[in-house]
Structures are given as structure tokens and as C-alpha cells.
Amino acid sequence: MKIANKILVSLLVIFIIAISAKRNYAMVAQLSPYSWDPGMYATYTSSYDSVHAWGMRTTQGAWGTGPVNYQSGATLSYRANSSGTLNFDMFGTYCPNGVCSYGAGTGYKGLVQFWDNPTNYIAFGLIHDPGVSPNGTTIMVEGAANGVPVGGYWPSGAISGTAHHIEVTWTATGISFTLDNTITLGVYPVQENAPSISFLAAARETGDIADTTFTNIDFSAGSVNLAPVFIPSGSPYFTYTDTITENGTGSGYSAYINAHDAYNDAVSVGIQSDITSPSSQGNPTFVWETVQNGVFSHQYILSATHNPTQITLSWWQGQNIAVFYENGTPIADINISLQPRLFFQVEGDGRENGDTVNDVFSPVNISVGLTGTWNTSSFNSYGLYATQTNGNTQNGASFTVQGQVEGLSSGENWNSNLIAGIAMIAQNY
Fold this sequence. Notes:
The protein has one helix at residues 3-20, and strands spanning 31-35, 40-44, 51-56, 71-76, 84-92, 103-104, 108-117, 120-129, 133-145, 148-153, 163-170, 175-179, 183-188, 196-203, 209-219, 238-245, 248-249, 252-260, 266-274, 285-292, 295-303, 309-316, 321-326, 329-335, 343-350, 356-361, 365-366, 370-375, 384-388, 399-404, 420-427.
């Protein structure tokens, strides 16, 4: 091998380690921010897994005595389905002197709201109010079931701390809330046939401050509706198609196809199974992941299977959009900027020691010119190996990724290590 090629392989090994460490993926849905007060604001992350709602109220009148003009937040752009679960972490992020709270003044609250129709809605969160929680914050449930009020407040059991985990479980006939995995309220008989779901902060009076951040927003698979897929005009720069079979045993495994450059930019599409994920609960799920300038992002999309499935990744250079297809149907558009020359790979991963991977990749087809042959020896780790199973040197090559994960230190898994079998080939450029 030439010295230049050896250096390139070494750089790619470092780069792949940087982009391939797995995370706990989230099922998220498109969010739309809004505010009903000029002093209140809301932002969200591009991956839709975090919302920050904050500000100082400028409108007049205490909450509950007039219009709902005292809050800001973000709402799902499309109504959810009639059953599911939602997990998120909620933080009080008003920290003027390094001591944080959910706000300041006479009253404030951070909440998640499920709205089905004017007679069936409910909000759960934490509230500070002179009437219901004069000495701190406490649990709040406010809503109606077929027009009959439901919920309450717990002023004698004020909640300490400004970091809490919340799980919501809903069906068409009821909804419950669990705080910090210990306190469950409900099931409240509130209809949730097609709920609008919002993450909100609210301030009680003029001049009051509210400040709540929601992170790790994670819906169960199939519970939320996804935005229509945007397909750019014109021909893509490349199209990469393969039929994959994702399978294995243990706590987690996955199968991906990937395109990346040499500048910390990458996009992968495929199927992952992970028993530690609240979204998938170990079931195979379509997922995309990107790295842009070294920053990692990801999203669960739809339920998948362990059967052979054709997946396609197309990328439009001028618009920096990739589209993920399942059996020819677009299921996600992904913002990603790549800088050719590109590199393409098949990849199978395992989560932790003892997990096995048994992925199959049928003949690949990549629409740009390729150079050299597939490298199946330089990018294998922790007992997983990519093997080419036919003689085609470029397009038409088939692979397996198999093995049992071994050699990790205690506590290590794919969140901290590249645990993969990879085959890679370069663009002819």
C-alpha cells in the first residue's frame, strides 16, 4: 500500500470512530414554536428533541382570569396518534445567581399539554402559585374529561429540585403521568384520539418570569406523525441502494449504509434494535444519523422488521438534502452538507459485550463512480467482522457483518466506543 493511502486509512479510522459511537435514539416529531406574549419566547433544536420556553410576561391579568396570553413553547406540527408514550426531562433554567428555578415573581409553571378538543385536554407539570403552592413548586394537573374538570394540586407535598423526568402514557380513552419514575397520577379519563402536544412555560402576572427547558424528548414508535418528506428537484448527486437484513441477539445491534467525506461530515440510514431505548424497546426501527462539522444528530423514524428490506440514500449536493427511502417510499429528509470526494460503507454494530450481530447486505448499487475495491479488513472492532460474500469488486458486492461483541471494559458500550464491522470504498474523484 502506498504511504498516502496508509495515511488516508488511518485518518478514516479516526474519523469513523468519531462518527460511529451510538447514542440512545429518540423518536421525535416536527415542532413549531409560538408565543402568546411579546415578552415570552421559545426555541427548539433542529433534531426536535429539546425545547426552551422562557421570558418575562408583559400582558395584563393573572392567569385563569382571562385569555391564555401568558405562555410560550413549542407544539407538534402534526397531531399525534391515539396511543403512545412520551418521555422527557424538564429543567428549571432561570439561574440569575447560579441557583436555578422555573421562574421568578408571583407565579410560574413548566408543563406538557395534551389537547384533543375543547372538552378533552390536560396539562401536567410543576407550578408556583400563591394560592396552590405558596412556599415553592408542586405538581399540577389541569384539564377536563368530556367537559368535567380533572386534576388538582399538591401544595402540602411541594417538589424540590429543578430537574425531573416525566413519562406520559396515553390512549384514546385516558392518560397518566409518572414523575421521576416513582409518582404516577391517573389514569384520567381524557379522550386523546388525536392529541396536539405542547411543551410550555407560563408566567402568572405582568413582570413574572418563566423559564423551562425540556430535553431528551422521546416518543414511542408509531405514536407521532411525521412531516411530509421533502424531495429536492433535479437529480441527486448520488443514490446508494442496498437490501439489508438487520438481526442479532442481546441488548442491541444495527445495520446501516453510510456516506461521508473527510471533513467530519456523514450521513447513515438503516435499522437499529436497542432494548435500552424507550422509543423502540428493543424492536427494529428505522433510524438516520448525521455528523455535521463533528456535531452528531439522529432520529428514529418508523418501525421496521428483521426481514430483508431495501433502503436507499440519495443526496442532492446543491440543496444539501438527503432522502431516506424504504422499499422505494421516502420516509425522511435529512439536512446534511457533504464535500466530495466521498466514501461509502456498510456497517453492522453491537451494543455491549455478549451481543451478537448477524447482518446481511445484498448487492450494493452506488450511482457515482467508485475506485479500488471494498476494504473489509481495516475497520472491524471488538469481535465484529465485515465479510464480502461474492466476487464483485465495486457495485454488485454483497456482505455480511457478523460476530459477538467482546473486549469492552466494564460499563462501556456503543455510546462510548465504535463496536462495528465495516466495509468501505472510495468515490472515484
